[in-house]
Amino acid sequence: MAVLLAFGMVADRNRRAWLVETGEEIDHDGPEGAAVVLGDKDSDPARVAIACADLAGLIEIGGTVIAGAGIDLGEGFVSARLAGASGDRRDAVLAALRVLKVGGAWRLGERTATLVALFGVTATKPLGAAAEQAIGEGRWAAVVLASAAADVLGPEQLVRVLELRAPDGVDPVPDSVPSGLAATLRRVLEPYSGPRRVDLVLDLWEQVCARQLAVLARERLVASHDLGVLESLRERYHRFDESQVIELVQGASAGPLTLLTAIRFRPAWRNLWKHSVERLIQDALAATVLLRAAVAVHEFGVSAGIDRVRDEISVVSAQFGRAEIKKAQRPAGQLNALPGRPICHVHDIDAWLRQQQPRNAAFERFVRARLRTALAYAVVVQERCRTLFGHEIPRDALPDNWDSNSLRAWRAVAGHTAYRAPEDWHTEPLVRKHDQPSLAIRLAQDPTAVEQASDLLWLADLADAVARARGHEAAMPQHYYRVPEFDTNPSEPQPDPLTPRSDSIPLAVAGAAQLVDLGATVPERCRDWARLCAGLMGSGAVAAALTSEFEVAEPVLAHDGALLPGTALRIQLARTAARLAEWSDYMGNCIAGGWYQREAVRGRSILLALRDEHDVIQINVELRRTGQGWSVCEIAGRFNREPDPALRQAVRNWAATLRAEEPEADPVEVVTAEPPVRVRRSAPDPVREVGPVLHEAVRKALVESEPALRVLVALAGDDDGDPQTLTALRRSSAERLTEMCAAFLDSRPAALPALWAATWGRPLAAAVDSLEPALLARYPRLRTITADAPLPSKRLRALVKEPDIATARSMDLIALRARAAIGRLARRGDPALSRAVTGHPTPDVLCPLILATTCASSHRIPVVAISEPRAVTVPGFPITSLSDVSGPWQAAWPAALELGIDEPELGSDGERFWEHVAGRGLLIPAVWLPAGGWPALWSRAHAT
């Protein structure tokens, strides 16, 4: 029997195939997609071994896919792959060309046949010449993209693609399978004409290159800083600071400094703290200007970058005399030769500029050497600020108001940044008295109010400069006590799984194809990629498709989260369409497409991912029902690459052990006594037994929830209270619902208490709770219909399809999700929510939001403490206690958990919450506090 080869080919009957790995001859069947050597049936075994060794060497460089290119191995032997290989021949030819280069392309056969494999039968001589030039220059990204786009572009347009050049260090098409990229390009570009298609492809190339260049620039910026000196610099700075304190103490003493005079010294603002704070502000300003200079030099070059911060360098350098500079430059024992203060580097650069020395290569080396340690100085100064203000200076040693001459001179030249405008700075000033108005409140009351050093806005400027030096736009505020703290290296925000990513061309095209598969319509007359994606994202069909819940057979569901036998990979099953969108966003495949979803909803297929120990997806798998079991229908890695053969076999072995269904049993886990012998009873049916009772209870609950219904549908702009609006709300994504809540509160801030009350009204939960306890005990899974999770059985899904029950369930789910949306708005410091909270506070709203703020591990906005650390009593009128079981704080915990607190992280009895209170007190977003602070807000909440 003839040997079946990949890509629909069959070996000649006079030819034989030998497996590369073993040298074994095969007559017909063999491992799917295995690499083989084809030769005459009477070939010399020694020559066969040589050919196998030659192909094995090529495979080691280019992978198994290379064998499908039909490489000439000499003396009549050629490479091939057995049937079952994924992709098409263009994948193999491109992989072979990467290894053989232009000089070895003859081993693939005639030049015309190679061009046809890459670009189709319409390939022309100019196209072939452009391809040879691109391959010779190693521009593989353009070659792969052109080969993938050959299904939708003509020869002249492909020549334009082959002329593309990626900047150094940029690869727009990394590790992509051309056939997979071609399939996604077809789905996205087919509705457009040829000229628009090529415009979109070229624009996508530019976008991806720009994105990768930005990432590369950030990596280079981070690498330009030398943090290896941090430890020694920290010790150097500490010693210099100690020496300055000793000088101050000695100056305050009448005679020479002795141990007795040091013990008698009483530090106060006048004789010590004022001077320490002024010196620290000067160091913070110097570190800030060095970091700004480092970023400017990285972006514009040394000369142009220094010019951009020239005035700031001058104003900081002018604050110091030569004696102070020499004192900071004085060596300190065996420590490194770096100065004790960052001002020395600022002064050095300023001196070079004032002397108008040439800006040559020596100047560049001079500047870069002083900017390389700017980040290390800034980190040390930040640490010193936290120590001095947070631990060393007693609160009662602070004056009622204090300022800095250095800061005033700096502001006169540098001004404020767009990220830290004074009118948005809500941090309480660091002065003797508590609850003093922040700079933002003072400016709102009096536009002529000025910034004071006690406002600590200069500390935020330093944090922002550190963040910029690490490649971020600005620092993220965190929780703090007394001294504001910032995350200067925040994690990148997680992108929306549905939004096509511009990290690479395969990811971008796969994301757009996924939206098309979900039912989105490509916008007409679109010539740039950004508008195409915006048009796809605006389709309502996408949001509706992501509400699908999948039917997963119980025998397979039992393996969710378990390890795949024989591997270290964990099985993750998809039970919702949103999970598929998350997978597809990373894998760059079409697993979230409409066809896969429809089959999964019907229970005909089960979709899963295998994750490694780092929770990274390695492969996606589709299982199909076959009689009484399941079999592997598709299995592919990222960008549809072929998985490891051993892993493929492990998946198939596991799938062969799965049963399609368990023996018939009640899916609602009915608890009954064992029936008497010979007595046959029908399986309990919740639709028949619970349905009528639950329906009546739901009807009563819906009547009582009519006000809540009107408020919830008003989020979508429906003021008539139409229950059908609930469907659109339930299908909205989490981010979309958050935007609706923000817009609702922006237009109706006084409606916050009503919205909060509406999210507490749960008609379905109330109806279930009203059922007889015996009935709930008989059907323990009945309570799952009130949770925001896929229902565990067909009968429960049939139960909630009854119109009234469906309406009630939609209200429950929207209420839960709206609570979580309010929590997201609070964490972001949304202005609409802030205005609603400060203008119309109630204890029911404030207490859960404050508990959620206190429990957060980090904060994106400034927060302040409204109670002292370790204090249980919360000040204000009326005074309350956090531990009072009948008080507002304990009663607020259920609502606080729904705002987004990770309940397992709280520990037993909320031990983590009490740790937070002990460490920093009860926290509230600073922007929520009016002029009178917390007492005024709490009093107003009880007056309304």
Put the structure in a nutshell.
This protein is of the alpha+beta class. It contains 44 helices and 15 strands. The protein has a five-stranded antiparallel β-sheet with strand order 2-1-3-5-4. The chain has a four-stranded antiparallel β-sheet with strand order 8-9-10-11, sandwiched between helices.
What distinguishing features does this structure have?
single chain; 944 residues; alpha+beta; 5 domains; 5-stranded antiparallel β-sheet; 4-stranded antiparallel β-sheet; globular
Helix content: 40-55%
Unreliably modeled segments = 662-673
| Count of distinct strands | 15
Total separate domains:
5
Distance between the termini: 89 Å
Give the strand order of the largest sheet, numbering strands 1, 2, ... along the chain.
2-1-3-5-4
Radius of gyration: 35 Å
Summarize the main sheet: 5 strands, antiparallel
- Number of DSSP helical runs: 44
Share of β-strand residues: 5-15%
| Helix/strand structural class | alpha+beta
How would the global form be characterised? globular
Return the average pLDDT rounded to an integer.
87
Write the layout of secondary structure elements.
Elements (H helix, E strand, L loop, with lengths): L14 E5 L5 E2 L8 E6 L4 H18 L9 E3 L2 E5 L7 H12 L10 H9 L5 H12 L3 H10 L5 H8 L15 H12 L4 H30 L6 H23 L6 H6 L4 H32 L1 H7 L1 H8 L4 H8 L13 H12 L6 H11 L2 H19 L12 H10 L24 H7 L11 H13 L6 E3 L6 E3 L17 H13 L11 H9 L2 H6 L8 H4 L12 E4 L3 H11 L6 H8 L3 E7 L5 E10 L2 E9 L7 H11 L30 H4 L1 H14 L1 H9 L10 H7 L2 H14 L4 H9 L2 H7 L3 H6 L15 H6 L3 H26 L2 H9 L3 H13 L7 E3 L7 E2 L5 E2 L6 H4 L1 H6 L4 H4 L4 H10 L2 E3 L7 H11 L1
Antiparallel strand pairs: 1-2, 1-3, 3-5, 4-5, 6-7, 8-9, 9-10, 10-11, 12-15, 13-14
